[in-house]
Amino acid sequence: MAKRIVLTALAVVMAMTTLAQATDKHDADLLVYKELTANYETTNWHPDLIVTKDMLKDTDEKGIYIVKGDSFQVKSIRSDFYVRKENGKWTPLNDTRYPMETMTNLLLDRIDNNKHKLELRHHQYGGAKPKILIPMQNFHDLFAQNMQMYCSVTFIDRHELRAVLVLHQKKMDFIHMVEMKIPTKRLTNPESTITGELYTNIPQGNLKSIFREKKQIIK
Q1: Strand 89-92, strand 117-123: pairing
Q2: Of 142, 149, 144, residue with least CA distance to 69
Q3: Reported pTM
């Protein structure tokens, strides 16, 4: 049995430092793959939940509010998330009746006890595309503590939901991007698997050109 490794903040910092020292994208992509396939035990890390009146914006749904964040390069790639009051406390929305809002909160690591899995095809330098199966919370534990997260739900109907997650390492100025999809009816099933295409170590300035190449219109 593989030795279980408890993910610590120090381990993440060491990984990011090594990434910065990688001599080329090939080495950097291999490092990310190694980190994602290690047998980590989740720490269930989440960003601090800070909600003040001036941060809230009404939605069309009664009792549902947007906590305003920032955009990244294109207007629809944002760090906004959704809350409502439960027992007198602001709580990130996790509700089958609101799939777009729930998916946004999942991607931005706002939902506690996240049991979803990610099945990712990792697009590496040189054309390799190995598959990775990882608990979604482990993915967030590894990256979200040291990268700024933004997302956009790009498509939703009663059959399928698609979204893009962008993680930006501000100090080192690179991004990771994941294009994800999941059957809409399975979104709030805690055992569901979200499939995705993972692109790593992208120069920060390349995000808009990636979307142009994919012929996605994001304003």
Answers
A1: unpaired
A2: 149
A3: 0.82
pLDDT, tens digit, for every residue of 98-150? Answer: 999 999 999 999 998 889 999 999 999 989 999 999 999 999 999 988 899 99
CA distances from 24 to 133, 160, 194, 203 (A): 25, 37, 30, 12
DSSP the chain: -PPPEE--HHHHHHHHHHHHH-SSHHHHHHHHHHHHHS-EEP----------GGGEEE-SSTT-EEE---EESEEEEE--EEEEEETTEEEE---TT-HHHHHHHHHTT-STT---EEEEEEE-TTS---EEEEEHHHHHHHHTTTSEEEEEEEEE-SSEEEEEEEEEETTTTEEEEEEEEEEGGGTT-TT-EEEEEEEEEEEGGGHHHHHHHTT----
Tokens 């439960």 appear where?
86
Backbone torsions φ then ψ of 139, nearest 5 degrees: -60, -45
